[in-house]
Amino acid sequence: DAGVTQSPTHLIKTRGQQVTLRCSPKSGHDTVSWYQQALGQGPQFIFQYYEEEERQRGNFPDRFSGHQFPNYSSELNVNALLLGDSALYLCASSRGTGGLSNQPQHFGDGTRLSIL
Amino acid sequence: DAKTTQPPSMDCAEGRAANLPCNHSTISGNEYVYWYRQIHSQGPQYIIHGLKNNETNEMASLIITEDRKSSTLILPHATLRDTAVYYCIVRVIDTGNQFYFGTGTSLTVIP
């Protein structure tokens, strides 16, 4: 039973460029969330996708956008990269969404993005 | 926006029980407490969660006080592989299923 998989594992970009990160959820999961983790900090919520729509969003600018596909996989896009976007980007999946679900999220090992 | 308070670091001798405390004094009645851990260079790993009753699984036990204002994660026989950052999270019920992480407790298991 494959868990959450993310690609690529590492990526180096320069300021101003654009990047796309990919996530495949755990089998049976239909909800995908994205987090940004700066060095020495806990993960910060970016947004959540369910039924191919963005359902919740954290305090991140519009440069951060996403997409969910019919097979539940997801992409995170970041435009106009800044040095401060250097971080570990984590994808988490879960089953169902909305306030009634107490199902835990399961995380991938992330994509390490470095901006030069 | 983390709603929990944890000590920044703890040590535990190998083979002994590790007791990790968490304060969540503003928790609401229908909010669950979750524990995750993160080993260097890996994604957070789910450990356990609970509402008001104590919970136990193959990894750990979760003890929640009767007033639900605090909880303790217990690793019964700590090993070197348990060295990690442990996050206590209260899921905010009105914002869906995402989690708000704090900075966690860095647990070091000492041989």
Walk me through what this model shows.
The complex is a heterodimer of chains A (116) and B (111). Chain A is mostly beta strands and 116 residues long. Helix content of chain A is 0%, strand content 49%. Chain A contains no helices and eleven strands. In chain A, strands 2, 4, 5, 6, 9, 10 and 11 form a seven-stranded mixed β-sheet that branches. A four-stranded antiparallel β-sheet of chain A has the order 1-3-8-7, with no helix packed on it. Chain A is globular and about 40 Å long. Chain A starts with a strand and ends with a strand. The model of chain A has no long low-confidence stretch (mean pLDDT 92). Chain B starts with 8 loop residues before the first strand and ends with a strand. The mean pLDDT of chain B is 91. Chain B contains no helices and nine strands. Classes of the chains: A mainly beta (116), B mainly beta (111). At the A-B interface, strand 4, strand 5, strand 9 and strand 10 of A face strand 4 of B.
Which helices and strands occur, and which strands form pairs?
The complex is a heterodimer of chains A (116) and B (111).
Chain A: E1 5-7, E2 10-13, E3 19-24, E4 31-37, E5 44-50, E6 53-57, E7 64-68, E8 74-78, E9 87-94, E10 106-107, E11 111-115
Parallel strand pairs in A: 2-11
Antiparallel strand pairs in A: 1-3, 3-8, 4-5, 4-9, 5-6, 7-8, 9-10, 9-11
Chain B: E1 9-13, E2 18-23, E3 33-38, E4 45-50, E5 55-56, E6 61-64, E7 70-75, E8 84-90, E9 105-110
Parallel strand pairs in B: 1-9
Antiparallel strand pairs in B: 2-7, 3-4, 3-8, 5-6, 6-7, 8-9
Describe the structure in brief.
Chain A is 0% helix and 49% strand.
- Specify the biggest β-sheet of chain A: 7 strands, mixed
Low-confidence residue ranges of chain B: none
Tertiary shape of chain A: globular
Q: In percent terms, what proportion of residues of chain A is strand?
A: over 45%
Rg over CA atoms of chain A: 13 Å
**Terminal CA distance of chain A:** 37 Å
**Individual helix count of chain A:** 0
β-sheet strand percentage of chain B: 35-45%
Terminal CA distance of chain B reads 36 Å
Work out the number of β strands of chain B.
Answer: 9
Main pleated-sheet profile of chain B? 5 strands, mixed
The run of helices and strands of chain B is EEEEEEEEE
Largest interface, counted by CB within 8 Å of the partner chain's CB: A-B, 31 and 26 residues
Report the average pLDDT across residues of chain B. Answer: 91
Shape of chain B: globular
Helix content of chain A: under 10%
DSSP helix fraction of chain B:
under 10%
Strand order of the largest sheet of chain B: 1-9-8-3-4
**How much is the average pLDDT of chain A?**
92
